[in-house]
Specification:
This protein is of the alpha+beta class and 633 residues long. Helices cover 60% and strands 10% of the residues. The protein is built from 19 helices and nine strands. A hairpin with a 2-residue loop joins strand 2 (311-316) and strand 3 (319-324). The chain starts with 6 loop residues before the first helix and ends with a helix.
Length: 633
């Protein structure tokens, strides 16, 4: 193949396509097996760049075809000069123009749209993935494979840039993609190696840089597609397809950033910006200006600004020199003097027995102490305290009478001496937390649970005083403002059994209350019913007594009437009986008309009983008969 052969661009397209697929597949496999977020980002970048290599293949094929047509045209011209003609002479010149028009009008915009969709889709997929799988062990072999792929892509990129200066000017788009892919694989390989060798997982956060870069490249492809439709054209210029990223050009050639920007402006706006005096001035003075800006920024580090409520310790080569208060101060620039600000006016809080992150994250959720999920794994034993208790009567004498209690306390403190706080120990906050754990165990170990629950406030004040004395002995330079016992309960592991006992006690108490309510309702009703029955019985007894006395007096009156006129009394009684019997039956009186006499007695008649000659005068009745006759009436 000759040096000026345009088919080199076609070979470059195939090699770049295979290399991108191979590198992206390798990075995807490493991300899948090793749980690497940054490797997934590198795979997304390489696989999205496949559309650029496809565009380069199509453009190289078109240019190779155009070159063949040019050679054919020259051959035909030579034949014409010799007086000979070709059979297909009239059809040959039109093929290249039609192919070029189809490429510019359809294929390049379509590839730009597909590239933008791939870039934006990859950014969305990476953002949803996050660092969920970053806890798996990294593979050193995978890191080596990624670094090897980065080297291969870098060589391919250099070759593409060299080829872009010759027969394939659009090979620079592939070179930019190859160089950026090499950089992505190198970053992913180094992150995996650091994770495997040193346990550093901070490199996985670079996956979010891939998210931002993929989204930015997708937006750039859409913007370039829009600008391509309206930019002015200059005669003789080589068109750059909209999928050729200008941002990746800056990454591929960082030493000529100004030239890359000038070329982009020349191409987009249709005038030679790189030939103006402004470009020459910037190219000549940009480095001195940048150096002056960097020196100015470095000298600005000598100005120390301490905010309100803070004090700052000035360290010269790590050794404290002086302590300054709020305001503006002058010192040697960084790194000769380092500033360590301390918020002396702020109130700090530490929580013993559990992680402090729960205080902010669980504010909107109700936490139960029986739920072991709100205690960090590995820290359950940090707040367990043995408490003495009274031995039960039926308890085994060989078992120690203690209670196991989970305790957490909140300690509020303020920095009193900044220099002592910063230079006394390496981590004063961790030491203060350990002292709080120790003093909490000492303070609560000799107390009974019931007493402790009643004296929570007194125990918290005692914890504050003991912790202040301990911190003074270690020279921490803090003032313990207050302490509070936030958690005070049995361990979460016995939560189910404790809840069963608690529920049983609550049910017992509820039943006692129900019985008291029932008793409070039943006793008054029972007393009222008893009083009503006693009153009714007394009334009934009085009524019967009165009736018996009346019967006795009536009987005496009838007896006296009988003794006075026995025959009259009997006749009257007989007639009364006859009247009663005749009243309940139909009587028919028959007689002769001559002997019938009607006697109308219109005078008021008195009953036999009104004169003491009624039914009771003849036959005294029992008390039951009297009651039955009253009910009939």
């Amino acid at each position: 193949m000759a040096t000026g052969d345009p088919a080199r661009g076609l070979w470059l397209g195939w090699i770049g396509l295979v290399a991108s697929l191979a590198g992206g597949g390798t990075a995807l496999a490493v991300a899948w097996h090793g749980g690497s977020f940054v490797a997934a980002g590198a795979a997304a970048h390489l696989l999205a760049g496949v559309w650029v290599w496809l565009g380069l293949l199509r453009e190289s094929a078109r240019r190779a075809r155009a070159e063949r047509e040019r050679l054919e045209a020259e051959r035909l011209a030579a034949l014409a000069r010799e007086g000979r003609r070709s059979l297909f002479e009239e059809e040959a010149p039109s093929a290249g123009g039609a192919a070029a028009g189809g490429w510019a009008a359809v294929e390049a915009p379509a590839l730009a749209v597909l590239l933008a969709a791939s870039e934006l889709g990859a950014a969305g997929a990476l953002l949803s993935l996050g660092e969920a799988a970053a806890a798996r062990e990294a593979s050193l072999a995978g890191a080596a494979a990624l670094c090897g792929g980065a080297f291969a892509l870098l060589v391919l990129g250099r070759y593409a840039f060299a080829l872009a200066e010759g027969p394939a000017p659009l090979a620079a788009a592939g070179g930019r993609r190859a160089t950026s892919g090499a950089f992505a694989l190198l970053v992913a390989g180094l992150a995996l190696a650091a994770r495997h060798s040193f346990g550093l997982t901070a490199g996985e956060g670079l996956g979010y840089a891939f998210v931002a870069s993929e989204a930015l490249l997708g937006v750039e492809a859409l913007v370039l597609l829009l600008l391509e439709a309206y930019r002015p054209r200059r005669p003789g210029e080589v068109a750059r397809p909209p999928y050729d990223s200008r941002l990746l050009g800056i990454l591929a050639a960082p030493s000529s950033i100004a030239q890359s920007i000038a070329q982009a402006v020349d191409y987009q706006f249709g005038f030679a910006f790189s030939q103006t005096w402004l470009y020459g001035f910037l190219q000549r003075w940009v480095l001195p200006l940048a150096g002056f800006a960097a020196a100015s920024l470095w000298l600005l580090t000598s100005l120390v600004v301490v905010g309100p409520g803070e004090r700052a310790i000035l360290r010269r080569f790590g050794r404290p020199v002086r302590t300054v208060g709020p305001g503006l101060h002058l010192a040697l620039p960084w790194p000769l003097v380092r500033v360590q600000p301390l918020a002396t006016g702020r109130l700090f809080t530490l929580v013993t027995g559990k992680h402090e992150g729960h205080a902010a994250g669980d504010g909107a959720r109700v936490l139960s102490w029986t739920d072991a999920g709100h205690v960090d794994e590995g820290e359950e034993g940090a707040s367990l305290v043995l408490l003495a208790r009274q031995r039960a009567a039926d308890e085994d004498p060989g078992v120690a009478p203690v209670n196991l209690l989970a305790v957490a306390a909140s300690v509020h403190y303020r920095i009193r001496d900044p220099e002592a706080y910063a230079t006394g120990v390496r981590d004063p906050g961790a030491l203060l937390e350990a002292l709080a754990e120790r003093e909490l165990s000492f303070l609560l170990s000799g107390a009974d649970l019931d007493v402790l629950l009643r004296e929570r406030g007194e125990r918290a004040r005692a914890l504050r005083d003991a912790l202040q004395q301990a911190s003074d002995r270690f020279g921490l330079g803090v003032d313990v403002v207050g302490a509070s016992l936030t958690d005070l309960h049995p361990p979460a592991e016995v939560g189910d059994a404790f809840e069963e006992v608690t529920v049983a006690l609550e049910e017992r108490h509820a039943r006692i209350l129900e019985a008291e309510v029932f008793s409070a309702d039943l006793l008054p009703r029972t007393r009222s019913e008893a009083a009503r029955k006693r009153s009714r019985a007394a009334s009934e007894a009085r009524r019967r007594q009165v009736l018996a006395e009346a019967d006795a007096r009536r009987f005496a009156a009838l007896r006296a009437a009988h003794d006075a006129a026995p025959e009259v009394w009997r006749s009257a009684r007989y007639l009364d009986r006859l009247v009663e019997a005749a009243a309940r039956r139909r009587l028919i009186v028959l007689g002769r008309s001559a002997e019938v006499r009607t006697d109308l007695d219109l005078q008021e008649k008195l009953s036999a009983e009104e004169v003491g000659l009624g039914q009771r005068a003849f036959v005294p009745r029992s008390r039951d008969e009297v009651e039955a006759s009253k009910e009939d009436e």
